[in-house]
Amino acid sequence: MSISLYEHNERAYRSALSMLQENGKAAVIHPTGTGKSFIGFKICEDFPEKAICWLSPSEYIFQIQQENLAAAGGTVPENINFITYARLMVMDEQAIAGIKPDLIILDEFHRCGAEQWGRGVRALLNAYPKVPILGLSATNIRYLDNQRDMAEELFDGHVASEMTLGEAIARGILRSPNYVLSVYSLQKDLEKMKDRVDRLRDPVRRDRAVTLLKTLRRNLEEADGLDAVFARHMPDRQGRYIVFCSNMAHMKRMIALAPGWFSLIDNEAHIYRAYSPGPATREELERFRSDRSGHLKLLFTIDMLNEGIHVKDVDGVILFRPTVSPIIYKQQIGRALRGGAAGAAAEISGHRRGTKLSGAVQASERHPDRLLGRYVCLCQGVLRGKGRSERPRPL
Question: Is-contact 5 309, C-beta < 8 A?
């Protein structure tokens, strides 16, 4: 069966073909979960006589993309020569000369801005300057790398189709989420803040800070615990959720705390782990996907589900991991936004840890009274929404 594209991808595909013919370069920038990889597979299918060099961050991402294509009734084209960016990075001139592509596909092309991976990509493009290149990514900006625009650097600004996350939700391509924000683990940071308040020399500023500190403590004492927040905002007691953590140590701590946090939903929640590519993780993911029990399913992960990988029938994501990068943030919430049943709302639960406050404390040691005012506003905003985010109002 030939590959069939959704309307938004069909338009992007036609635009990309036209741009490739005219300029030899085309980028498609669509949010996570909209099916960008199908555009790449479609062009491979429609031009079977062409040798396609498909570059991607990992073999695992490409495997999942192939599985998604097969699940949709498509067949993976045989004219694809798949290479990871890491492998390309160590290929010598002779190996690159043996690729001989008619088209180069750069999947997650924003990753080509990395120093080492980018060096391999430049070597390939320099070896084949007349070969068309197609780029697929959820973003063209490397936010933490001086805001570099990889669509400009790699494709000279030739963007065949661009869609924002908000547009995809507004058009019904992705589900509209419920976003829940909570604050937790602030006790140690409050103690640090109290020490700084006690050291203030200005009596007016110290009195104001003491008042704000008392208000903040009172707000936190009145707040629901995470167990109540989860119980209120996770209506499907048999749901399937992805839990993002910072690193292995953090993930272990979160798993240890999970029985208490999710006890009001399910005392016997099924816990799964995915933290590195390999057979064991692949089996764990398959168990998570196929779990049809009447229990809550929680898949704890670190980085491997950030991009390129989609787990079907996910009811929501839980963000225990703080992140500065909008790319990673959008990739994580994108795990829950993929089109599902009509009217279904994805649940996104964001949790601010004490480390956020701790970093701000160090940066604002001279003015803890001002910092406390901001966090009192934050906590009151969370309280008014019973754990749901809203813009905090000034005191």
Answer: no
pTM comes to: 0.69
- Listed by start position, the domains of the chain span 7-170, 177-384
Tell me the DSSP string of 161-219.
EE--HHHHHHTTSSPPEEEEEEE---HHHHHHHHHHHHT---HHHHHHHHHHHHHHHHH
135: Cβ contacts below 8 Å, ≥ 6 apart: 25, 26, 27, 28, 105, 106, 109, 150, 151, 154, 155
* pLDDT score for 351: 54
The DSSP annotation for 308-332 comes to S---TT--EEEE-S----HHHHHHH
Strands 346-352 and 316-319: parallel
For the chain, the C-alpha Rg in angstroms (whole number) is 24
Residue 50 contacts by C-beta under 8 Å, 6 or more apart in sequence?
44, 79, 102, 103
Q: Are 368 and 209 in contact (CB under 8 A)?
A: yes
Q: CA-CA distance, 219 to 202, in Å (whole number)? A: 26
pLDDT block averages, 10 residues each, the chain of length 395: 92 97 97 91 97 93 88 94 96 97 97 94 97 95 87 97 90 79 64 80 84 78 75 86 86 91 93 82 86 94 59 78 60 54 43 41 44 48 43 33
Same fold, 7-170 and 177-384: yes
**Domain 7-170 - what CATH class?**
alpha beta
Q: What is the DSSP letter of 388?
A: B
Q: Sign of the C-alpha dihedral, residues 99, 103, 107, 112?
A: positive
Q: Are 369 and 209 in contact (CB under 8 A)?
A: yes
Closest by alpha carbon to 55, among 18, 16, 99? 99
Burial of residue 290, with CB atoms counted within 10 A of its CB: 0-12 exposed, 13-18 middle, 19 or more buried: exposed
pLDDT of residue 312: 66
Report how far residue 78's alpha carbon sits from residue 130's, in angstroms, rounded to the nearest whole number. Answer: 23
Beta strand pairing call for 141-142 and 316-319? unpaired
Q: Which CATH architecture group holds 177-384?
A: 3-Layer(aba) Sandwich (3.40)
Calpha distance 120→91 (Å, rounded): 8
